[in-house]
Fold this protein.
Amino acid sequence: MKTIYRPTWTEINQDALIHNIDFFEKMNPNKIMIPVIKANAYGHGAINVMKVLYEKGIRYAAVSLLEEAMELRAAFDDLDILMLGPIMPDDLPVASMHRIEITVYDQMIYDAIMSSSDWLICHIKVDSGMSRYGFKKPNEVAKMVEGLQLANHVSLKGIYTHFATANDDEVFYQKQLSHFKKVLKAIKTKPLMIHISNSSSTLKYEKDYDFTTHYRLGISLYGLSLDQPKPDLMPVMSLKSKVAQIKELLPGDCVGYGATYCVSEPERIAILPIGYADGFLRRNKTGHVEIHGTKYKIVGIICMDACFIKVDETVHEGDTATLFGGIISADDVAKRLGTINYEVCTSISYRVPRRLTGGNHD
Ligand SMILES: Cc1ncc(COP(=O)(O)O)c(C=O)c1O
């Protein structure tokens, strides 16, 4: 039965995703990838993305929230699922029941874990300089590790940290790395899994590390990056909508809320059924969309469910517009909005269907 009716959608290119997986597996043949599929796989659709990863033999995933972890667990019974975000003490039984690996990030949760009667799989988080979650002092981490290793109801599976500047500030990156190494040195029996890299760190440094076992890959799995030069990756997501109506404007006619765009000569305006409630933010009003390989200007103010494009006589009702993921990239949109490609993808709202393309899904 048909469940999707609206002519606005994202295409999630399975072939591009596979290309990106192969790219990293070739780069790091001796390490295991942990795909980061939090925030609905950076907006790409967690379950569909995980299906592709699973078919490629990947059996690990990292998310941020317990809700995200449980959604994955319901679909993949034999997946190792690491929750990167903070868990609340009351929720430890839920993590245990669903076999979710949790992050030990501060004293409060350490105490709750130690006094829990549930079987818990843990990774200890080191704050090596980002001042986000985790323990900082080497001796403090060593004590926690020992405590967790002695607890009969705990499996301390891994230790990890996260970098703040792997894509740009090498000096700060090295400072974090050396802090993490100091922490490792203080630990008598190291956990089996050691994972420190995000996308930028994986691209630049991971192959030189002999002490890590896994790497956590987010944005570059989806073919995007903050690094320069851009790595040889393929963007996975494109955002599309079909022209719902063409308006032939006469001199003096105005467009949209606020009547901010008025014409002094005849113009053709295409209305796309996509707006800010879909994550196509009002600040896009200075941008362009692609139709038939040509860029056309967005005019007027973007509505909740629609936006206006100034077009020529070659554009017709029913034609497909690509808002990004074609000749206009997610990076172009990010630049337009004064943000990063991560935010462009994760902003696409739940109202926009994610269609898997490529492979045998076309
Ligand atoms: C703890 C942690 N690891 C890995 C990642 C993946 O980072 P990236 O998307 O830059 O690869 C993130 C993303 O924010 C994260 O928070």
Summary: The pocket of pyridoxal-5'-phosphate is lined by residues 36, 84, 162, 198-199, 216-219 (CB under 6 Å). The domain at 13-222 is CATH 3.20.20.10 (TIM Barrel). The CA atoms of residues 107 and 198 lie 25 Å apart.
